[in-house]
UniProtKB/TrEMBL annotation:
UniProt entry tagged with the keyword Iron: no
Lineage: Bacteria, Pseudomonadati, Bacteroidota, Flavobacteriia, Flavobacteriales
UniProt KW keywords: Cell outer membrane, Coiled coil, Membrane, Signal, Transmembrane, Transmembrane beta strand, Transport
One term under GO cellular component: cell outer membrane
Subcellular location: Cell outer membrane
Coiled-coil region(s): 334-393
Superkingdom, taxonomy of origin: Bacteria
Residues of the signal peptide: 1-18
Membership in a protein family: Belongs to the outer membrane factor (OMF) (TC 1.B.17) family.
PANTHER family: OUTER MEMBRANE PROTEIN TOLC
Name this polypeptide is given: Outer membrane protein TolC
The keyword Membrane belongs to this UniProt entry's keyword annotation: yes
SUPFAM superfamilies xref list: Outer membrane efflux proteins (OEP) (SSF56954)
UniProt-recorded Gene Ontology molecular function terms: efflux transmembrane transporter activity; porin activity
Length: 444
Protein backbone atom coordinates (compact mmCIF):
# COMPACT_ATOMS: atom_id res chain seq x y z
CA UNK A 1 0.00 0.00 0.00
CA UNK A 2 2.83 2.39 0.91
CA UNK A 3 4.52 1.57 -2.39
CA UNK A 4 1.37 2.48 -4.35
CA UNK A 5 1.06 5.77 -2.46
CA UNK A 6 4.75 6.58 -3.16
CA UNK A 7 4.33 5.91 -6.89
CA UNK A 8 1.19 8.06 -6.92
CA UNK A 9 2.98 10.96 -5.21
CA UNK A 10 5.93 10.69 -7.61
CA UNK A 11 3.53 10.76 -10.55
CA UNK A 12 1.94 13.92 -9.18
CA UNK A 13 5.39 15.50 -8.81
CA UNK A 14 6.37 14.61 -12.36
CA UNK A 15 3.10 15.96 -13.72
CA UNK A 16 3.61 19.22 -11.85
CA UNK A 17 7.14 19.64 -13.23
CA UNK A 18 6.20 18.68 -16.83
CA UNK A 19 4.84 22.05 -17.90
CA UNK A 20 3.50 22.39 -21.44
CA UNK A 21 5.31 25.01 -23.55
CA UNK A 22 3.19 26.66 -26.22
CA UNK A 23 5.42 26.99 -29.25
CA UNK A 24 4.65 29.13 -32.27
CA UNK A 25 6.97 28.95 -35.26
CA UNK A 26 8.50 32.29 -34.30
CA UNK A 27 9.06 31.10 -30.73
CA UNK A 28 10.76 27.95 -32.04
CA UNK A 29 13.06 29.93 -34.34
CA UNK A 30 14.02 32.51 -31.71
CA UNK A 31 14.70 29.75 -29.19
CA UNK A 32 16.89 27.87 -31.70
CA UNK A 33 18.95 30.96 -32.57
CA UNK A 34 19.61 31.55 -28.87
CA UNK A 35 20.29 27.97 -27.81
CA UNK A 36 21.37 25.76 -30.72
CA UNK A 37 25.07 24.87 -30.64
CA UNK A 38 25.56 25.70 -34.35
CA UNK A 39 24.37 29.28 -33.82
CA UNK A 40 26.45 29.69 -30.67
CA UNK A 41 29.58 28.36 -32.37
CA UNK A 42 29.12 30.75 -35.31
CA UNK A 43 28.94 33.68 -32.87
CA UNK A 44 32.08 32.40 -31.13
CA UNK A 45 33.87 32.38 -34.49
CA UNK A 46 32.96 36.06 -34.92
CA UNK A 47 34.39 36.74 -31.47
CA UNK A 48 37.50 34.72 -32.28
CA UNK A 49 38.07 36.76 -35.46
CA UNK A 50 38.71 39.82 -33.26
CA UNK A 51 41.51 37.96 -31.52
CA UNK A 52 42.97 36.95 -34.89
CA UNK A 53 43.07 40.62 -35.88
CA UNK A 54 44.90 41.41 -32.65
CA UNK A 55 47.35 38.59 -33.37
CA UNK A 56 48.17 39.96 -36.83
CA UNK A 57 48.36 43.52 -35.54
CA UNK A 58 50.95 42.41 -32.98
CA UNK A 59 53.41 41.72 -35.82
CA UNK A 60 53.48 45.46 -36.58
CA UNK A 61 54.09 46.42 -32.94
CA UNK A 62 57.45 46.37 -31.08
CA UNK A 63 58.55 42.97 -29.81
CA UNK A 64 60.30 43.33 -26.45
CA UNK A 65 61.85 40.47 -24.52
CA UNK A 66 64.14 39.97 -21.54
CA UNK A 67 66.76 37.27 -21.39
CA UNK A 68 69.40 36.00 -19.05
CA UNK A 69 71.82 33.15 -18.67
CA UNK A 70 74.41 31.69 -16.33
CA UNK A 71 77.33 29.68 -17.79
CA UNK A 72 80.01 27.65 -16.03
CA UNK A 73 83.11 26.70 -18.04
CA UNK A 74 84.97 23.89 -16.22
CA UNK A 75 87.53 23.80 -19.02
CA UNK A 76 88.26 27.07 -20.81
CA UNK A 77 89.11 26.77 -24.49
CA UNK A 78 92.62 27.92 -25.41
CA UNK A 79 93.67 29.83 -28.49
CA UNK A 80 97.05 29.59 -30.24
CA UNK A 81 98.53 33.01 -31.13
CA UNK A 82 101.81 34.37 -32.52
CA UNK A 83 104.23 35.32 -29.74
CA UNK A 84 105.49 38.32 -31.74
CA UNK A 85 102.61 40.33 -30.39
CA UNK A 86 103.88 39.74 -26.89
CA UNK A 87 107.59 40.47 -27.58
CA UNK A 88 108.45 36.83 -28.27
CA UNK A 89 108.93 36.61 -32.05
CA UNK A 90 109.31 33.14 -33.49
CA UNK A 91 107.28 31.54 -30.71
CA UNK A 92 103.73 30.37 -30.36
CA UNK A 93 101.68 31.10 -27.30
CA UNK A 94 98.70 28.97 -26.23
CA UNK A 95 96.44 31.25 -24.19
CA UNK A 96 93.08 30.77 -22.52
CA UNK A 97 90.56 33.61 -22.87
CA UNK A 98 87.48 33.96 -20.68
CA UNK A 99 86.46 33.14 -17.14
CA UNK A 100 85.19 30.07 -15.35
CA UNK A 101 81.82 31.76 -14.74
CA UNK A 102 79.80 34.09 -16.96
CA UNK A 103 76.33 35.57 -16.33
CA UNK A 104 74.45 37.74 -18.76
CA UNK A 105 71.12 39.62 -18.50
CA UNK A 106 69.51 42.04 -20.93
CA UNK A 107 66.56 43.42 -22.81
CA UNK A 108 66.09 43.27 -26.59
CA UNK A 109 63.69 45.08 -28.92
CA UNK A 110 62.69 44.34 -32.49
CA UNK A 111 60.50 46.67 -34.56
CA UNK A 112 59.30 45.92 -38.08
CA UNK A 113 59.76 48.97 -40.29
CA UNK A 114 58.73 47.49 -43.63
CA UNK A 115 57.25 44.05 -44.27
CA UNK A 116 54.69 43.73 -47.03
CA UNK A 117 53.31 40.48 -45.60
CA UNK A 118 52.43 42.22 -42.31
CA UNK A 119 50.50 45.00 -44.04
CA UNK A 120 48.65 42.48 -46.22
CA UNK A 121 47.89 40.36 -43.15
CA UNK A 122 46.25 43.32 -41.40
CA UNK A 123 43.88 43.93 -44.33
CA UNK A 124 43.15 40.20 -44.59
CA UNK A 125 42.37 39.99 -40.86
CA UNK A 126 39.63 42.60 -41.20
CA UNK A 127 38.17 40.66 -44.12
CA UNK A 128 38.32 37.51 -41.99
CA UNK A 129 36.11 39.21 -39.41
CA UNK A 130 33.58 40.08 -42.11
CA UNK A 131 33.78 36.50 -43.42
CA UNK A 132 32.79 35.08 -40.04
CA UNK A 133 30.03 37.67 -39.66
CA UNK A 134 28.53 36.52 -42.98
CA UNK A 135 29.06 32.89 -41.95
CA UNK A 136 27.19 33.61 -38.71
CA UNK A 137 24.28 34.97 -40.74
CA UNK A 138 24.33 31.92 -43.03
CA UNK A 139 24.35 29.58 -40.02
CA UNK A 140 21.33 31.37 -38.57
CA UNK A 141 19.50 30.99 -41.88
CA UNK A 142 20.31 27.28 -41.97
CA UNK A 143 19.02 26.89 -38.40
CA UNK A 144 15.82 28.76 -39.33
CA UNK A 145 15.21 26.62 -42.42
CA UNK A 146 15.83 23.35 -40.59
CA UNK A 147 13.65 24.25 -37.60
CA UNK A 148 10.81 25.60 -39.78
CA UNK A 149 10.65 22.45 -41.92
CA UNK A 150 10.72 20.17 -38.87
CA UNK A 151 8.11 22.31 -37.12
CA UNK A 152 5.69 21.88 -40.01
CA UNK A 153 6.44 18.14 -40.22
CA UNK A 154 5.54 17.69 -36.56
CA UNK A 155 2.37 19.70 -37.08
CA UNK A 156 1.27 17.50 -39.98
CA UNK A 157 1.72 14.34 -37.96
CA UNK A 158 -0.39 15.83 -35.17
CA UNK A 159 -3.09 16.75 -37.68
CA UNK A 160 -3.05 13.19 -39.01
CA UNK A 161 -3.51 11.92 -35.46
CA UNK A 162 -6.51 14.22 -34.99
CA UNK A 163 -8.05 12.82 -38.18
CA UNK A 164 -7.44 9.24 -37.07
CA UNK A 165 -8.92 9.94 -33.65
CA UNK A 166 -12.01 11.39 -35.29
CA UNK A 167 -12.22 8.44 -37.67
CA UNK A 168 -11.86 6.04 -34.76
CA UNK A 169 -14.75 7.73 -32.93
CA UNK A 170 -16.97 7.59 -36.03
CA UNK A 171 -16.10 3.95 -36.66
CA UNK A 172 -16.90 3.16 -33.03
CA UNK A 173 -20.38 4.61 -33.54
CA UNK A 174 -20.85 2.47 -36.65
CA UNK A 175 -19.69 -0.59 -34.70
CA UNK A 176 -22.27 0.12 -31.98
CA UNK A 177 -24.96 0.36 -34.65
CA UNK A 178 -23.89 -2.90 -36.32
CA UNK A 179 -23.62 -4.64 -32.96
CA UNK A 180 -27.16 -3.54 -32.10
CA UNK A 181 -28.36 -4.87 -35.43
CA UNK A 182 -26.47 -8.13 -34.89
CA UNK A 183 -27.95 -8.56 -31.43
CA UNK A 184 -31.40 -8.12 -32.96
CA UNK A 185 -30.63 -10.53 -35.80
CA UNK A 186 -30.58 -7.78 -38.44
CA UNK A 187 -26.88 -8.02 -39.30
CA UNK A 188 -24.38 -10.78 -39.94
CA UNK A 189 -21.47 -11.58 -37.67
CA UNK A 190 -19.07 -11.01 -40.54
CA UNK A 191 -20.24 -7.40 -40.72
CA UNK A 192 -19.46 -6.89 -37.04
CA UNK A 193 -16.09 -8.60 -37.45
CA UNK A 194 -15.18 -6.32 -40.36
CA UNK A 195 -15.92 -3.25 -38.26
CA UNK A 196 -13.85 -4.60 -35.37
CA UNK A 197 -10.93 -5.34 -37.73
CA UNK A 198 -11.13 -1.83 -39.14
CA UNK A 199 -11.10 -0.32 -35.64
CA UNK A 200 -8.03 -2.40 -34.80
CA UNK A 201 -6.28 -1.21 -37.96
CA UNK A 202 -7.11 2.42 -37.16
CA UNK A 203 -5.83 2.00 -33.60
CA UNK A 204 -2.59 0.45 -34.88
CA UNK A 205 -2.10 3.36 -37.27
CA UNK A 206 -2.78 5.78 -34.40
CA UNK A 207 -0.02 4.19 -32.36
CA UNK A 208 2.37 4.43 -35.31
CA UNK A 209 1.55 8.11 -35.79
CA UNK A 210 2.04 8.77 -32.08
CA UNK A 211 5.48 7.19 -32.29
CA UNK A 212 6.33 9.29 -35.36
CA UNK A 213 5.19 12.42 -33.52
CA UNK A 214 7.46 11.58 -30.59
CA UNK A 215 10.45 10.98 -32.86
CA UNK A 216 9.89 14.13 -34.93
CA UNK A 217 9.24 16.25 -31.85
CA UNK A 218 12.52 15.01 -30.40
CA UNK A 219 14.28 15.90 -33.66
CA UNK A 220 12.69 19.36 -33.59
CA UNK A 221 13.82 19.93 -30.01
CA UNK A 222 17.32 18.80 -30.94
CA UNK A 223 17.47 21.25 -33.85
CA UNK A 224 16.26 23.96 -31.46
CA UNK A 225 18.70 23.06 -28.68
CA UNK A 226 15.74 22.45 -26.36
CA UNK A 227 15.72 19.79 -23.60
CA UNK A 228 14.12 16.64 -25.02
CA UNK A 229 11.84 16.21 -21.99
CA UNK A 230 10.07 19.52 -22.71
CA UNK A 231 6.40 19.09 -23.66
CA UNK A 232 5.37 21.37 -26.54
CA UNK A 233 2.05 22.47 -27.98
CA UNK A 234 1.49 24.11 -31.37
CA UNK A 235 -1.25 26.71 -31.98
CA UNK A 236 -3.71 25.97 -34.79
CA UNK A 237 -3.09 29.19 -36.71
CA UNK A 238 0.51 28.18 -37.38
CA UNK A 239 -0.65 25.99 -40.25
CA UNK A 240 -2.86 28.39 -42.15
CA UNK A 241 -2.15 28.73 -45.86
CA UNK A 242 -1.59 32.30 -47.02
CA UNK A 243 -0.52 32.61 -50.67
CA UNK A 244 3.09 33.80 -50.80
CA UNK A 245 3.97 37.07 -52.48
CA UNK A 246 5.68 36.22 -55.77
CA UNK A 247 7.85 39.21 -56.58
CA UNK A 248 10.42 39.84 -59.27
CA UNK A 249 13.44 37.53 -59.53
CA UNK A 250 15.72 38.31 -56.56
CA UNK A 251 19.36 39.29 -57.06
CA UNK A 252 21.24 36.13 -56.12
CA UNK A 253 24.39 38.18 -55.50
CA UNK A 254 22.68 39.45 -52.34
CA UNK A 255 22.16 35.91 -51.02
CA UNK A 256 24.24 35.01 -47.99
CA UNK A 257 25.68 31.92 -49.70
CA UNK A 258 27.03 34.06 -52.55
CA UNK A 259 28.27 36.84 -50.26
CA UNK A 260 30.23 34.26 -48.28
CA UNK A 261 31.94 33.02 -51.45
CA UNK A 262 32.64 36.62 -52.47
CA UNK A 263 34.31 37.31 -49.16
CA UNK A 264 36.24 34.05 -49.46
CA UNK A 265 37.48 35.23 -52.85
CA UNK A 266 38.68 38.45 -51.22
CA UNK A 267 40.59 36.42 -48.63
CA UNK A 268 42.22 34.33 -51.36
CA UNK A 269 43.32 37.52 -53.12
CA UNK A 270 44.95 38.68 -49.88
CA UNK A 271 46.56 35.27 -49.55
CA UNK A 272 48.06 35.69 -53.01
CA UNK A 273 49.36 39.14 -52.07
CA UNK A 274 50.88 37.72 -48.89
CA UNK A 275 52.74 35.15 -51.00
CA UNK A 276 53.85 37.88 -53.43
CA UNK A 277 55.27 39.73 -50.43
CA UNK A 278 58.11 37.21 -50.66
CA UNK A 279 59.43 39.27 -53.58
CA UNK A 280 59.69 42.41 -51.42
CA UNK A 281 62.60 43.34 -49.11
CA UNK A 282 62.05 43.58 -45.37
CA UNK A 283 63.51 46.10 -42.98
CA UNK A 284 63.54 45.97 -39.20
CA UNK A 285 65.14 47.77 -36.27
CA UNK A 286 66.86 45.91 -33.44
CA UNK A 287 68.16 47.22 -30.14
CA UNK A 288 69.49 45.59 -27.02
CA UNK A 289 70.95 46.41 -23.65
CA UNK A 290 72.84 43.79 -21.64
CA UNK A 291 74.74 43.45 -18.38
CA UNK A 292 77.47 40.82 -18.07
CA UNK A 293 79.39 39.49 -15.11
CA UNK A 294 82.58 37.35 -15.35
CA UNK A 295 84.91 35.78 -12.85
CA UNK A 296 86.44 32.63 -11.41
CA UNK A 297 83.34 31.99 -9.33
CA UNK A 298 79.59 32.37 -9.76
CA UNK A 299 79.09 36.11 -10.44
CA UNK A 300 75.82 36.48 -8.58
CA UNK A 301 76.24 38.66 -5.50
CA UNK A 302 80.07 38.62 -5.94
CA UNK A 303 82.37 41.70 -5.88
CA UNK A 304 85.52 42.81 -7.73
CA UNK A 305 87.45 41.79 -4.64
CA UNK A 306 86.31 38.26 -5.43
CA UNK A 307 87.66 38.59 -8.95
CA UNK A 308 84.19 39.11 -10.44
CA UNK A 309 83.58 42.12 -12.66
CA UNK A 310 80.31 43.44 -14.08
CA UNK A 311 79.90 45.64 -17.14
CA UNK A 312 77.13 46.71 -19.51
CA UNK A 313 76.94 46.95 -23.26
CA UNK A 314 74.28 47.81 -25.87
CA UNK A 315 73.73 47.71 -29.60
CA UNK A 316 71.30 49.26 -32.12
CA UNK A 317 71.03 48.03 -35.70
CA UNK A 318 69.02 47.89 -38.90
CA UNK A 319 68.38 44.55 -40.59
CA UNK A 320 67.67 44.54 -44.33
CA UNK A 321 66.71 41.39 -46.16
CA UNK A 322 66.51 41.49 -49.97
CA UNK A 323 65.35 38.28 -51.70
CA UNK A 324 67.27 37.70 -54.92
CA UNK A 325 66.65 34.09 -55.94
CA UNK A 326 64.49 31.53 -54.16
CA UNK A 327 64.70 28.71 -56.67
CA UNK A 328 61.33 29.78 -58.20
CA UNK A 329 59.61 28.70 -54.97
CA UNK A 330 57.82 32.01 -54.49
CA UNK A 331 56.65 32.02 -58.10
CA UNK A 332 55.19 28.53 -57.70
CA UNK A 333 53.33 29.58 -54.53
CA UNK A 334 51.91 32.64 -56.29
CA UNK A 335 50.64 30.51 -59.14
CA UNK A 336 49.05 28.05 -56.70
CA UNK A 337 47.26 30.94 -54.99
CA UNK A 338 46.03 32.18 -58.38
CA UNK A 339 44.64 28.73 -59.24
CA UNK A 340 42.72 28.71 -55.92
CA UNK A 341 41.14 32.06 -56.84
CA UNK A 342 40.12 30.89 -60.30
CA UNK A 343 38.71 27.65 -58.86
CA UNK A 344 36.59 29.60 -56.36
CA UNK A 345 35.34 31.87 -59.16
CA UNK A 346 34.01 28.78 -60.93
CA UNK A 347 32.22 27.79 -57.71
CA UNK A 348 30.69 31.28 -57.60
CA UNK A 349 29.33 30.94 -61.14
CA UNK A 350 27.85 27.54 -60.30
CA UNK A 351 26.37 28.87 -57.05
CA UNK A 352 24.63 31.72 -58.91
CA UNK A 353 23.01 29.18 -61.23
CA UNK A 354 22.05 26.98 -58.28
CA UNK A 355 20.48 29.87 -56.33
CA UNK A 356 18.51 30.99 -59.37
CA UNK A 357 17.34 27.41 -59.87
CA UNK A 358 16.18 27.29 -56.23
CA UNK A 359 14.01 30.35 -56.77
CA UNK A 360 12.49 29.05 -60.00
CA UNK A 361 11.75 25.65 -58.45
CA UNK A 362 10.28 27.22 -55.32
CA UNK A 363 7.92 29.36 -57.42
CA UNK A 364 6.83 26.30 -59.40
CA UNK A 365 6.25 24.32 -56.19
CA UNK A 366 4.20 27.18 -54.71
CA UNK A 367 1.95 27.37 -57.78
CA UNK A 368 1.51 23.60 -58.01
CA UNK A 369 0.78 23.19 -54.31
CA UNK A 370 -1.81 25.97 -54.31
CA UNK A 371 -3.66 24.15 -57.09
CA UNK A 372 -3.30 20.85 -55.25
CA UNK A 373 -4.60 22.34 -51.99
CA UNK A 374 -7.64 23.77 -53.80
CA UNK A 375 -8.40 20.42 -55.45
CA UNK A 376 -7.83 18.39 -52.30
CA UNK A 377 -10.01 20.72 -50.25
CA UNK A 378 -12.86 20.28 -52.70
CA UNK A 379 -12.23 16.54 -52.78
CA UNK A 380 -12.27 16.39 -48.96
CA UNK A 381 -15.60 18.25 -48.81
CA UNK A 382 -17.09 15.94 -51.43
CA UNK A 383 -15.84 12.83 -49.58
CA UNK A 384 -17.43 14.12 -46.36
CA UNK A 385 -20.78 14.60 -48.13
CA UNK A 386 -20.56 11.12 -49.67
CA UNK A 387 -19.82 9.59 -46.27
CA UNK A 388 -22.78 11.39 -44.70
CA UNK A 389 -25.17 10.24 -47.44
CA UNK A 390 -23.82 6.69 -47.38
CA UNK A 391 -24.24 6.50 -43.61
CA UNK A 392 -27.89 7.64 -43.90
CA UNK A 393 -28.51 5.13 -46.68
CA UNK A 394 -26.92 2.36 -44.60
CA UNK A 395 -29.15 3.13 -41.63
CA UNK A 396 -32.13 2.99 -43.97
CA UNK A 397 -30.96 -0.26 -45.51
CA UNK A 398 -30.22 1.34 -48.89
CA UNK A 399 -26.44 0.85 -48.78
CA UNK A 400 -24.20 -2.06 -47.79
CA UNK A 401 -21.59 -2.07 -45.07
CA UNK A 402 -18.95 -2.30 -47.76
CA UNK A 403 -20.20 0.97 -49.25
CA UNK A 404 -20.02 2.61 -45.81
CA UNK A 405 -16.48 1.38 -45.10
CA UNK A 406 -15.33 2.46 -48.56
CA UNK A 407 -16.80 5.92 -47.98
CA UNK A 408 -15.02 6.20 -44.62
CA UNK A 409 -11.72 5.15 -46.17
CA UNK A 410 -12.20 7.64 -49.02
CA UNK A 411 -12.88 10.46 -46.59
CA UNK A 412 -9.81 9.65 -44.45
CA UNK A 413 -7.61 9.44 -47.54
CA UNK A 414 -8.96 12.78 -48.80
CA UNK A 415 -8.25 14.40 -45.45
CA UNK A 416 -4.70 13.00 -45.37
CA UNK A 417 -4.08 14.15 -48.94
CA UNK A 418 -5.21 17.66 -48.02
CA UNK A 419 -2.94 17.73 -44.96
CA UNK A 420 0.05 16.50 -46.98
CA UNK A 421 -0.66 19.13 -49.65
CA UNK A 422 -0.61 21.85 -47.00
CA UNK A 423 2.70 20.51 -45.63
CA UNK A 424 4.22 20.50 -49.12
CA UNK A 425 3.06 24.07 -49.57
CA UNK A 426 4.57 25.24 -46.26
CA UNK A 427 7.90 23.58 -47.07
CA UNK A 428 7.84 25.16 -50.54
CA UNK A 429 7.02 28.49 -48.88
CA UNK A 430 10.13 28.20 -46.68
CA UNK A 431 12.19 27.35 -49.79
CA UNK A 432 10.79 30.42 -51.58
CA UNK A 433 11.53 32.71 -48.64
CA UNK A 434 15.05 31.28 -48.50
CA UNK A 435 15.56 31.78 -52.25
CA UNK A 436 14.67 35.45 -51.77
CA UNK A 437 17.13 35.76 -48.89
CA UNK A 438 14.36 36.65 -46.44
CA UNK A 439 14.43 33.78 -43.90
CA UNK A 440 15.00 36.29 -41.10
CA UNK A 441 11.47 37.64 -41.72
CA UNK A 442 10.12 34.50 -40.07
CA UNK A 443 11.30 35.76 -36.68
CA UNK A 444 9.92 39.29 -37.07
Amino acid sequence: MKRIILIFLCSIGLSANAQVKTLTLKDALVYALENKADAKKARLQVENSEYKIQEVRSRALPQISANGNLTHNPIIQTTVIDGAGFGQPGTTIQAAFGQKWTSNAGVSLTQTIFDQSVFTGLRAARSTREFYQINDQLTEEQVIERVANNYYSVYVQKERLVLLDSNYVNTTKVRDIVKGQFDNGLAKKIDLDRIIVKMSNIDTERQQIKNQITLQENALKFYMGMPIETIIDMPKEEFEVVPAALTEVPNVENRTEYLLLKKQEELLVYNKKAVEAGYYPTLSLTAGYNYIGQGPQMPWFAKPSDGVYWSDYSAIGLNLHVPIFTGFGTRAKVRQADVEIRSLQEDMKDTKLSLDLDYRNAMADIDNNLVTIKNQKENMQLATEILSNTKNNYLQGLASLTDLLDAENAQLEAQNNFTRAVLNYKIAEVALIKSKGELKTLIK
